[in-house]
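I would love for you to help me understand the pair of lines that follows before we discuss the fold together.
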Amino acid sequence: MKVAIIGGGISGMSAALFIKDFAENFSIKNDNDISLYADKLGGEFSSGGLKYIHNTDDTRYFIGNVLELDYEIKKVNGAVYYKGKLKSFPEYLYYNSLKNGNTFGDSDIQNKYWNKTRGTESDFDDRCMNEPWRFRNELMLNPSKDIIDAMKSNIKESDIKIFYINVNKDLLRDIIKENDLVIYTIPFHLLANAYGIELDAADANTKPTQLHIERFKVVSDENNIWCDYIYVTDAEYKFHRISKHIGIMGGVYIDVEYNDVNFNIYDQIKNYERLKHFMYQNFGSIIEEYSKWINNRSVQTFQIKGQIKNDLSQKALNKIPKNVMLLGRFAEMNKKVTFDKVLEKLYLYAKNIHNK
């Protein structure tokens, strides 16, 4: 069997490594029967933010056996900064919603955060901050090494053929025609366009946006930072999320995310001073600049629920060849598809194909 993977993000790379690990199920004799097409390896998961993985049989196997990484299982602590106060998240969000007679997913906190990060013109009808709700009573995997880096290394050290290329309509059709199985992981509208259905990104539930991240080193009282991530709703702060992580050589760092990358040098200095004040006021921690502009690129973010938006999307799905598997949130047009769900789908497919 010849297998091609379209896309080099976390879904595409995990698919390539998964098929390599389960080669016998797919009747693959050597790694070079697997091809991966991508403009680069990495994807949205490497853009910053929370790096914990949902704790399932599939994720434990993949992290421990396929990537051969150690991991710890821990409770992830979140926080929300709302109206000048730092509160535990999502417990505070949950009880704040109940107190005001709202269901989870329709609170003032979520609305403020959504408007700050996406703007008021969005038609998003399943408010943001929904995914961390799963963290409330769930233990998470904390890999010993960045899994994106581990995936890149494993793929480059294998015989998997990598084609660094932006796929177009003609190339997509050729790849699908020449392979027994194609695992498609990039935005769905590009595939629909290849088969004569003119969708745009909005039709397929995606919208490009700019994400900017700066990294800072915590130089004192790092143990005071009790939360692993913070959502900052208040408009006085330009940044909207802070994520804590441990460096490879030790030390505590924070990644600070912004939605707007066009502010000038004066804005940068002003924002840095506010960030220093924020960290000292809430944790007594002192930070210093570590890496400016570590990530400044266009990423895809979802603006509506994970449902097919219109008849055109359904028509496009019906035209996709049977040897194509849609995998991941961009391809499946569903923002609720997380890494554990990607692995679950791959394992089920391998099991079914083995039993045939």
Q: What stands out?
A: The chain has a mean pLDDT of 78. The chain has two domains: 3-57+145-205+308-355, 75-140+207-301. The first strand starts at residue 3 and ends at 6. Residues 265-283 form the longest helix (19 residues).
